UniProtKB/TrEMBL annotation:
Its EC number is 1.1.1.1. This is alcohol dehydrogenase. SMART domains: PKS_ER. Belongs to the zinc-containing alcohol dehydrogenase family. It comes from the Bacteria. Keywords: Metal-binding, Oxidoreductase, Zinc. The lineage of its organism: Bacteria, Pseudomonadati, Pseudomonadota, Alphaproteobacteria, Rhodobacterales.
């Protein structure tokens, strides 16, 4: 099969993935499923993997290279292990990004992200930037009738990550409160839609890119700001003291030490983006009673909920599609923010195909 493989880490991000023919994955365990990849979202985590940010955590010897990234996958079941009963070849599915054991206590509580025996295809083992990809039955959600893999693939990670954070925020927000989203990219634009559906609050979207600002307006943000040097003052003026909840989808490049300053007293910061280091005086936490917490991807059940919102047309992915052969162009465009929303790799598409930005619509 054709696949895009990473051969080296490079903090300067100048490496290119190699497009090559490699053996297709095979079933080794009874619960495994081979998925024919319909589409695979391109994630900032993929850029961080290339940069080597994850190297010490998952590959300190560099011995996992080369491998296939891609952890936001949807497609059609191609082959199933002998123990698989819930899906069959031909079924359209979206893949929760983790392969979980189902047996550990965290799994039994439904905390998939904290499964003690998890595997994460696309991070250190082969993922979906290929024609076929292997996962397990527990990770799969059958798509609703009329929903195509291409219209939902990035929901598998970008989508649920935004959904989990926004759902948590929605529980904290009352009508009249302000929620503020930092970064209206592949995740931020989903969070905005989820807040519109699940919270009665007002929203501020902050992004320095004009394209992202337009998208935020289209998606119903009450205020859209460019994040200039006066941001803190602007937010205080609009909100009368600060946002009740800030969701930071950037988490680096200095934003990590700006985000908590946008909160009102008693406010909550939900960190989703990562890479930077927060430095905050303890007095600030105490005197202003602000809370800071992280939010990691999402549980299987949260992906099920998000797929229902998507099937009802309430949360849609705004995306730009690239052929597998053009994945290096996609990475370049992503790094340089030449598209808004999510970049999506489509293994079945002919090279040089680049579908201009659009909101993915299901084929009903
Ligand atoms: Zn991702
Ligand atoms: Zn487990």
């Amino acid at each position: 099969m054709k696949a895009a493989r990473l051969y080296e880490y490079d903090p300067a991000m100048n490496v290119r993935l190699k497009i090559e023919d490699v053996p297709s994955p095979t079933i080794d365990r009874p619960d495994e499923v081979i998925v024919k990849v319909g589409a695979a979202g391109l994630c900032r985590t993929d850029l961080h993997i290339i940069e080597g940010v994850w190297r010490d955590i998952m590959d300190s010897h560099g011995s996992l290279l080369p491998y296939i990234m891609g952890h936001e996958n949807a497609g059609w079941v191609e082959d199933v292990g002998s123990g698989v009963t819930s899906v069959k070849p031909g079924d359209a599915v979206i893949c929760h990004p983790l392969r979980t054991c189902g047996i550990c206590l965290n799994c039994r509580h439904g905390h998939d992200m904290h499964c003690q025996n998890n595997l994460f295809p696309g991070l250190g083992l082969d993922g979906g930037f290929a024609e076929y990809f292997k996962t397990s039955e527990r990770s799969l959600i059958k798509l609703n009738t009329g929903i195509t893999p291409l219209s939902v693939a990035p929901m598998a990670d970008a989508g649920i990550t935004a959904y989990r954070a926004a759902k948590r925020a929605a529980k904290l927000l009352n009508p009249g409160d302000w929620a503020l989203i930092l970064g209206v990219g592949g995740l931020g634009h989903i969070a905005l839609q989820v807040l519109n559906e699940m919270a009665g609050c007002r929203t501020i979207a902050v992004d320095r890119e004009p394209g992202a600002q337009v998208l935020a307006k289209e998606l119903g943000a009450d205020k859209v700001l460019s994040g200039g040097p006066d941001l803190i003052e602007e937010v205080r003026q609009i909100t009368g003291g600060g946002a009740r909840v800030v969701i930071d989808f950037v988490g680096e490049l200095g934003v990590e030490n700006l985000c908590w300053k946008l909160l009102k007293n008693g406010g909550d910061l939900i960190m989703v983006g990562y890479g930077g280091t927060i430095e905050i005086p303890t007095l600030e936490l105490v005197a202003r009673e602000i809370r800071i917490g992280g939010s990691l991807v999402g549980d299987y059940t949260e992906l099920v909920e998000l797929m229902e919102l998507n099937a009802d047309g309430k949360v849609k992915m705004h995306q730009t599609e690239f052929a597998l052969e053009d994945i290096n162009t996609a990475i370049d465009d992503f790094k340089n923010r030449r598209f808004t929303g999510r970049g999506v790799i489509v293994p079945g598409a002919p090279s040089a195909r680049r579908v201009e930005e659009r909101t993915a619509e299901a084929v009903k």
